Amino acid sequence: MNIKTGGCTEDCKYCSQSSSYKTQTKSSRLVDIEPVLEAARQAKANGSTRFCMGAAWRDLAGKKSGFEKILKMVSEVRGMGMEVCTTLGMLNADQARRLKEAGLSAYNHNLDTSREFYPSVITSRTYDERLETIQAVRDAGISVCSGGILGLGEEDADRVGLIHEVSRFDEHPESFPVNTLVPIPGTPLEDNKPVPVHTVLRTIATARIVLPKTIIRLAAGRHTFSETEQAMAFMAGANAIFTGERMLTTPCSGWDEDKAMLDRWGLRGLRSFEDQEGVQMTPEGTHVQPETTTEKVQTVAQ
Ligand code: SAM
Ligand code: SF4
Question: Which of 65, 84, 191, 207 is 20 to 30 A from 292 via CA?
Answer without folding.
Answer: 84
